């Protein structure tokens, strides 16, 4: 007969309650991992969305995500003419605050040239932008629906389509508009001083037709590094391959969040380990008299050790599974995307098993030391 | 030696003290005691006189400071422990009955008894069957599925006795086995123990304060300050 199971069954309510408490802790740990994964996935989505091979940006910058980048709109034609480039498109990025349904809505506005690289990939609902004037495709996270109208700057945009999972690394959902519209918006939202200058006609060249980057898709045979080298020879321009762009994004933008969450995760795991150890230790301490009785009637150490270790493993595994179920149930209600890979859950499971075994070591030590005479008393 | 009178417990020159110096307590002083097959003996004496300590020495729960302990013909202590695996010895040869039944609270009556049988190496089915036999024999078979918490004092004590007897031990040690029972039930339990000792060729050493059951013992041993004072033969 399995003593661990019998004891758990006898105190089932308490065991389940303890497991529930533990599972909440596990759920928080899993949520933390999921939020981190989501952060990386979201940040990369924006970079991956244009399906570019090469990013042409302002020289000396790591734009357009990690730093501001500003290049003349005419760059696109020059890039498109390069040997090995299949197609190229200009693109702008800006964060805009708009009002919708009485709430302030932060949008990550992406201006692109319809028919060229840079537009939304999969339209989840509605259609893509077909007219040059004031149409908008938004991420579903904005809460906008097809047919809505929203004011950006001095113009009202019609929502014609929705996409999913497109947002910047800060979590602001994306909104796609045409490049000319984006440039108008840029000038309307520019700081007052610059607007005055623009009105006077100064710096016209800079403000009239600038973009953040030009993205290029290469012909299958072309070498991205070679094309990038060519671009870098031009004055004022820099070039990043897609891989470099992703590395920069993860390195600069995501890195701090990663360390922040990583530290928090470490603290959480430590707390969990201490809590598990405490629970298992007190669980054993409460049973000391029964353990003394077991010794007295002749039970070998093996019986006593397996009682403690099995119970602590059961506690850890049930807590872990409840936690996993819990997080899978609630993950869609988080404001940011929570992405859990099976390997994350498995890793946590592995850590919990180790913690449980180490923690039961404490209990086992106390149990093996207990004098069988304490069972008699008096 | 006459097989029927063979000693099961032989204690010779056993002393036990706890602590050293100022804190030294001499719990047992130079005890000699022999208990033979089928004998039912009582340990009497005021609180702190060393009764539990002596029982623990016989049960191999604590080692004597000096002296020899021989159980069922096997020399277990000779100024030091001679046997490594005392728990196995307890499992095979010694049955304990405690003042408070000390049943495992998470096992029902039947499994409490079956546990010691499986620990001794019986198959689960065999253990369950024998456990039920024992409970029936002690007239608590109808409570086989009850958890210890819901058993009455007398029922729990009988289940505990069934557990003590499960592996047919030669030596049954009982520390105030009837303290939790009224005198009528105490008498019933003692009669039962006598019957068991006779049937199993076992001996019983019981600590008791209960004068009403003195007549159930073959011999009474009085302990005072760790010294075994005199032995009374009870005329039965
Ligand atoms: N583990 C121990 N450490 C120190 N002293 C002990 C220990 N066990 C018993 N003693 C002391 O040894 C003496 C005898 O104790 P014991 O428990 O054998 O008495 P007892 O006759 O069973 O008493 P009671 O009738 O109250 O149960 C007491 O003075 C007790 O304080
Ligand atoms: Mg005592």
From TrEMBL, chain A:
Subcellular compartments: Cell membrane
Predominant subcellular localization, coarse grouping: membrane
Transmembrane segments: 12-36, 261-283, 304-330, 342-364
Occurrences of domain MacB-like periplasmic core (ranges): 16-220
Membrane topology: Multi-pass membrane protein
Domain ABC3 transporter permease C-terminal: 263-372
InterPro entries: ABC-4/HrtB_transporter, ABC3_permease_C, MacB_PCD
Keywords annotated in UniProt: Cell membrane, Membrane, Transmembrane, Transmembrane helix, Transport
Gene Ontology CC entries for this record: plasma membrane
Protein origin, superkingdom: Bacteria
Recorded coiled-coil stretches: none
PANTHER family, per the entry: ABC TRANSPORTER, MEMBRANE PROTEIN (PTHR43738), HEMIN TRANSPORT SYSTEM PERMEASE PROTEIN HRTB-RELATED (PTHR43738:SF1)
Protein name: Putative ABC transport system permease protein
Organism listed in the record: Marivita hallyeonensis
Automatic annotation (TrEMBL), chain B:
Gene3D superfamilies in alphabetical order: P-loop containing nucleotide triphosphate hydrolases
Family annotation (InterPro entries): AAA+_ATPase (IPR003593), ABC_transporter-like_ATP-bd (IPR003439), ABC_transporter-like_CS (IPR017871), ABC_transpr_LolD-like (IPR015854), MacB-like_ATP-bd (IPR017911), P-loop_NTPase (IPR027417)
Keywords for the protein's UniProt record, in alphabetical order: ATP-binding, Cell inner membrane, Cell membrane, Membrane, Nucleotide-binding, Transport
An annotated GO cellular component: membrane protein complex
GO molecular function: ATP binding; ATP hydrolysis activity; transmembrane transporter activity
Tree of life domain: Bacteria
Domain ABC transporter, first and last residues per copy: 9-235
Family classification: Belongs to the ABC transporter superfamily. Macrolide exporter (TC 3.A.1.122) family.
Protein name from the UniProt record: Putative ABC transport system ATP-binding protein
Organism: Marivita hallyeonensis
